[in-house]
Structures are given as structure tokens and as C-alpha cells.
Amino acid sequence: MNANADPLEIQKFSELAHRWWDPTSEFRPLHDINPLRLEWINARAPLAGKNVIDIGCGGGILSESMARKGATVTGIDLSKKALRVADLHSLESGVPVRYKLIAAEEMAAQEAGGFDVVTCMEMLEHVPDPGGIVRAAAALAKPGGHVFFSTLNRNPKSYLHAVIGAEYVLRMLPRGTHDYDKFITPAELSQYVRSAGLQVESLRGLGYNPLTRLYSLNNDTSVNYLMACTRPL
């Protein structure tokens, strides 16, 4: 097991892996936000013909949707069960994705500079050293390549919405899905990004309306947010 991984986090998502592609399951939020994040990525880095890697791909929701856009996609994760589900769904859907059981840091050592687009979504808040993942993502990107992250801000509002609201009140997520202490502020992520040699290009918030049950991209980064970066030429 790579040092930059929490076995309990991997176990937690592995136990739910069989429900990954059920849009009414614990993974409903991922299904609901996927069109938004996909179009946001595609608008900044058109995916057709691109070589893409999805770090922390889980069951492959984003990986497969990027492949549908015409990208050649590699999805990596440390959950064997999640990758089995991803592989099976890829076979059933006929959308080819290369899945690998490998840590981001190891993948960066093997295929440095090999990807036009690197994505790492809803994953940084689940690892012991998010800065290490950012460095690996930067290493995987080609010069001039695009790197995309999404994670959770750390402040009282995000605790209220992402933990109390989502896990206890609305029950959108299983209790214990998130550890507030591992949330990352945009300033902290920006520092990781700059230290890894990347440039921040765009920052967007992801909002949820509990009345309409709809998500939207906006300028409020106080809870969920997405960051687009580039690796300089």
C-alpha cells in the first residue's frame, strides 16, 4: 500500500463499490454533478483526441464520460473492488477505459509527462498528503497540459453543509464520508499547485439547492469548489 493512502478510506469506498453506478445510491451526488464537471473540463480542455488520466477514478463515472467525449482515458485507483466495477461497466457500455490499480505517485514515475489532461476530483480530502497527489498530477501532465481538481473548503459553512447537512440532515451521503479536518482551503490548494510548478487558471464553486435538488456552478467557493490549472510550456 502506498504511504499516501488511508486504508480505512479505501475500505469505506470498496464496501460500497457494487453501488457505484446506481444513480439512486450513496453515489447519487457524483452522478448529479458529473455533467457539470465534465462540461467544465471539456470547455477548458476539449477532450476529443486527448490523452487523459483520472486520479482516484473509483467506479469510473467521470472516466467513462470523458471517454464518451472522444478522449483516450486511463483511470487509476487503489480500490480493487471499485476498479472491478469500473471495468465491468466499461465492458457493458462499450466505452473503452484503461483502468489500473496504482498510486498516483507510482504512475507519475512510470508515465511522467504523458497526459494532455489530468483530473483528480473529490479525492484530495481523502488522503493523508494531498500535496503529494498534486505533485504527482503535475508530473503526469505534459508541458502545456491541463490539470483539474475538485475538493471541499474548510470553514464552518462547509462543515454545516457538507457534513451536518449532507450526511445527517439530508442523508445524501453515508455518515462518516468526510473528515472535516482533511478539507482543504482554496489558498492551501493554490499553494500546493504553485509548489508543484502549476499555474492556477480558474476557480469555480459548486452549489446545491436542497429544494430543487439541483447542482450548479457559481462563484461561491465556500463549500465545494473546482480548480483548473495548467503546466507551463
Automatic annotation (TrEMBL):
* Top-level lineage group: Bacteria
According to its UniProt record, the EC number is 2.1.1.222, 2.1.1.64
Positions bound to S-adenosyl-L-methionine: 37, 56, 77, 121
Database matches in Gene3D superfamilies: Vaccinia Virus protein VP39
User: Which Pfam families does UniProt cross-reference here?
Assistant: Methyltransf_23
What Gene Ontology molecular-function terms does this entry list? 2-polyprenyl-6-hydroxyphenol methylase activity; 3-demethylubiquinol 3-O-methyltransferase activity; polyprenyldihydroxybenzoate methyltransferase activity
Please list the GO biological process terms of this entry.
methylation
Keyword Flavoprotein part of the UniProt annotation: no
Q: In which pathway does it act?
A: Cofactor biosynthesis; ubiquinone biosynthesis
What family is it from?
Answer: Belongs to the methyltransferase superfamily. UbiG/COQ3 family.
This chain belongs to the protein called Ubiquinone biosynthesis O-methyltransferase
Tell me the gene name. Answer: ubiG
